[in-house]
Amino acid sequence: VRYSLQPIVIKEIVNHLSCPPEGISAEIRMDALGIDSLGAITILSELGDKLDIEVLYEIFDSPYAIGDILTPLDQIIAQKNPA
Amino acid sequence: MSRRIVISGLGCISSLGTNVAVFWEGLANGRSAIGALSGVDSDIRISVGAQVGGFQPEAHFSNKDLTILDRFSQFAVLAAKEAIEDAGLSANGSILATAAGVIGSGCGAKQTDEETYRKLYKEGRTRVHPLSIPKGMHNAAASMVSQHIGIRGPVFSIASACASGAHAVIQGAMMIRLGLVDVAVVGGTDAPFTYEMLKAWEALRVVSNDTCRPFSRNRSGMVLGEGAAMLVLETAEHAASRGAHCYAELAGFGMTSDAGHVTRPDTDGIAAAIRAALSDAALDPDAVSYINAHGTGTEANDLAETEAIHQVFGKHAQSLAVSATKSMHGHALGAASAMELVATVLAVQKGLIPPTANFTSAGDGCDLDYVPNHARAETIDIALSNSFAFGGLNAVIAVRSLS
User: Fold this and answer.
1) Which ipTM was obtained for this model?
2) Chain B residues with CB-CB distance to A34 below 8 A
3) CB of B227 within 8 A of CB of B189?
4) pTM for this one?
């Protein structure tokens, strides 16, 4: 992952859940946080806005861990901004 | 046999303030909340409005809630919460589990629509927010009220432009009369201050750039407002059984449609709605002492409404107090009729008629007592709240004092 995406993703999840950031790590599954499929695509959409990318929701099959989001997001960013 | 319906709770968020107490304080003091528009694009020619100033959604809702709550839903939820608390009902309580919820809105989730269109057509994006549909559907406000306060009976939205709130109140009252429910949370909400809406109203050339002066010679049109108002209706028997404080009785209602011009009000259609409300409430015209007018401040409305009142009330029209509170809270479209019903209920309960603010001198053909600029203390037994919508849809609600 070329960008420091993890803190951005976790911040978005914390913001969405209005919860403290402690204990939220890349290993935690979205469903374990009470995030359903609608919540997940909402978070991804808002991440897309923040990162200025078009998120393809289809590549994220739930349930998945927070860390699973990072690589696909990084790939989308890389395609948009090739090195 | 018809079941008596009482009003046991009120909620309101408007340009006059974010609760019923400040709403009434503003009306009682003839305070107009119309002012310079803020937060709108500079190429909009409409320069004044009645906005809910200083409203901070984050102070009332979590970030997660706000992802699904359009501004019109935010207003509806806050007003509904105030109304049920005022009625002595608790959110998610057993009474609300069987209650109805009917929420009127003239234009729906315009903020969400505008954000969606902005992304697609202005920013050239190919995807929009995944909650655009559930956040932007017309019934979103009704659904959010249901979710936030735990109404589990029949819930739906009503759309009849500027009479939406009144029609929603009437639908709730009809369900109570039919015995479908004992309690209904009803009202209207709208948040029309978006670029598209302002441009559309600008094109219609009925909006003032001065202020709202209903029935005055130098009137210059209507002024848009926003907000929500909600009422708790229940059977008198149900209210008595739980020792609820009640404001007034919802004595009857009338609904008609003009089947005529899409924007020009029809005197006969308005008069028929007033007569229908009086008939439904089994009232003689002479029993009415106050009418909260639709009173938009357009020449077409002011003349048609005044003439309709003459038609129905005859000589008694000269004894009526008729005031237009849109001069203070603006024309909040689908919420306006619910706000005006709240004003009417409080006028009856408190014995104080809110004025027509910004009044100068009566316009041609406007020859009633419009309660100019200052509230008037007067015992009111029966009052009417008039609401007339684009599309020729009329709704009138009769309120009776409990004292």
Assistant:
1) 0.78
2) none
3) yes
4) 0.94
